[in-house]
Amino acid sequence: MSAIIEVSGVAKTFRQPKRLPGLGGAIRSLFSRDYTEVRAVQDVSFAIAPGEAVGYLGPNGAGKSTMIKMMTGILVPTAGSLSVLGREPHAHRMTNAAEIGVVFGQRSQLWWDLPVRDSFDLHRHIYEVPEARFADNLAFLTTMLGMADYLDRPVRQLSLGQRMRAEIAMALLHDPKILFLDEPTIGLDVVAKDAVRKFLAQINRERGTTIILTTHDLQDIEEICPRLIMVDDGKLLFDGELPRLRAALGSRRRLRLEFGSDPGPITLTTARLVTDDGAAKHFLLDAEDTSILDVLTELGSGYDLKDVTLEEPAIEEVIRTFYQSKPQRAAEAL
Amino acid sequence: MKARAYAAFTVNAFQSRLAYRSAVWSAAFGDLVFIFARIAIWVSVYGAATSTMTDGVTLPQAITYAIIAGPVLYWDFARLLHDVGTAIQTGDVAVYLLKPLHYPAFLLASHIGHFLFELLLVVLPVVVIAGLTYGMVPPASLFHALAFLGYWALSFMMLFALASLAGLAAFWLMTASALEWFLMSIMTLLSGGLVPLWLFPGWLAAIAGHLPFAWVSYYPAAVYLGRLDVSQTLLYFAIGLVWLAVLLGALAWLWTRARHRLIVQGG
Ligand SMILES: Nc1ncnc2c1ncn2[C@@H]1O[C@H](COP(=O)(O)OP(=O)(O)OP(=O)(O)O)[C@@H](O)[C@H]1O
Ligand SMILES: [Mg+2]
After folding, report:
1. SS3 A115
2. Which end of chain B is more exposed for a tag (fewer CB within 10 A), N or C?
3. What is the atom index within ligand 1 of the atom nearest the CA of B266?
4. One domain for residues A70 and A29
5. What is the pLDDT of residues B2-46, one digit of tens each?
6. Domain check: are A105 and A166 in the same one?
7. Do A276 and A237 have their domain in common?
8. B5: which chain A residues are within 8 Å (Cβ-Cβ)?
9. Does A268 touch chain B (CB under 8 A)?
10. Which of A40, A68, A67 lies closest to A179, judged by CA?
């Protein structure tokens, strides 16, 4: 199928007048031609097919929210071209808005003083959702997200987890083709995070809603998004499936060998010794195609081997290595 | 356009105010104190004044003017200014851009809701109490009564446009409270809400009489009292409409600029 979102060579540079301190400074900066430039997104390209679920990952200030804002039409790219559902989002703001759903974890779209139900009802009018369709969606979302208890409470009284579920529900009431979520699990507890993740995965699977979400929580990506786009300093670092990232990084699996008694120092070619606690030794498997069998074969049968465990690296560790392996980052760290 | 959606905003603004019912009492009490104080001033002024100073206006007419130009026409535009200013400062205005909505139309719809709420729960009771206490004169004629209704709607729209313009200016000046203070001062001086234009020095009355602020309080109240004859009433209504068109044009233009700034510069 052809792409539902196409981003090619997109860049966003924020150009803001330099603010000088004090009142005099504030007045002078009104006329000043001095600008500070922030290159939030630089030359990013990717395409997303209908029905995909994509995680957009990167450290603070990497340009994730900026990218989401450009795709939702509330920011215009400085360079490059961007098409969502075949349209340039900011040039067709109204039509685009009607066909997408957006959730900003940091910014509520519900009406603060109104009961959740009334916010939903307003939403129905704004998006002109047919009554029957709306009733179906509302019933489905209320059950799925467990909102029945607080549907009639004003938004300002809700807990963060309740509010976030209401935000997500509202973004889906008009059957959007694409759902954009900027940090939807921020500040949620384990249970709420789990509920949100399961729900998003289900919506993506069963309704075929395309999902693009930014997050710092890697588990979000593991559970919802088969595909991962990683950015840093505004630039694209990686685009592909999570296992491929592991592979690309030379996923250094960790092997733990436990012996009945301390066998003394062991040196192997297939595995590199990292910690030696006598009877328990940890090795790193640097090569991707090394199997446990290779290691055990090299080790031979002369040892009193009690237990063998092989650990896949945690995804956090993979990402951390990835950020750290970048040369300029290493240089900054020194 | 989605008339139903905007009507829903009006209804919801009205309903959301019901959540703060206790605020009604303090608002009504504040308005009452204010109107009684102003009437007291008129009574003492009339006690000491000669007829040239009052321009042929009787005390009951002056009291009626105070009631109409005050609580009736002068609605709480600070709320509107504040809404816009906060939306800009917190960046929440972006949320409105995410929806298939026209923000100024949304503002208008919801502030009609606030206006109706205040009219029913604050203004009408205050007018009834003040009217029963001091007496109000009826409209000068049926024509003036009908014309007053038209002027009233014009007054609302004029104040809406002025307050929205000031609110949007917060995009560039980044402080809604200073703008609120500024607009409040100008309105107090030039709308005729506090002192009718016929008591202004001639040159100031000539200037103020042709600025849009006068359509907020002065002209509607003056029409009610029959201070304008039929042709003047129609003429000034037309001038008011021109002013309103200019202000709404400016509002549309400023909103386009603000939106441009928002989506290009990121706020
Ligand atoms: N309106 C703006 N004006 C100027 N600079 C901005 C603006 N919005 C974002 N930036 C800058 O652009 C860069 C990217 O910001 P962005 O919000 O996209 O990061 P992010 O990846 O979402 O970060 P986080 O994980 O902290 O949310 C940052 O350096 C930020 O300071
Ligand atoms: Mg962000």
Report:
1. strand
2. N
3. 1
4. yes
5. 788 899 999 988 988 887 878 888 888 888 898 888 888 888 888
6. yes
7. no
8. 122, 125-126, 128
9. no
10. A68
Expressed as residue numbers, the domain containing A68 is 5-242
Query: What is the predicted ipTM?
Result: 0.81
pLDDT at residue A273 in the model: 85
Q: Give how far the C-alpha of residue A88 lies from the chain's centroid of Cα atoms, to the nearest Å.
A: 23
Ligand 2 geometric centre to CA of A332 (Å): 23
pTM for the model: 0.82
> How many whole angstroms separate alpha carbon B26 and alpha carbon B14?
18
Same domain for A180 and A285, yes or no, is: no
- On whether any CB of chain B is under 8 Å from the CB of A23, the answer is no
Q: How far B95 CA sits from the closest chain A CA (Å)?
A: 6
Average pLDDT, integer, range B84-113: 90
Which parts of chain A sit beneath pLDDT 50? 329-334
Q: What is the pLDDT of residue A329?
A: 44
Q: Measured from the CA of A231, which atom of ligand 1 is nearest? A: 21
Q: Is A118 on the interface with B (CB under 8 A)?
A: yes
Bridge partner residues of A309 (DSSP)? A256
Return the pLDDT at A334.
36
Could you tell me the distance, in angstroms and rounded to a whole number, from the CA of residue A321 to the centre of ligand 2? 22
Which atom of ligand 1 lies at the shortest distance from residue A68's CA? 18
Query: Both A227 and A85 in a single domain?
Result: yes
Q: Is A249 on the interface with B (CB under 8 A)?
A: no
Q: What is the CATH number of the domain that holds A124?
A: 3.40.50.300
pLDDT score for A283: 86
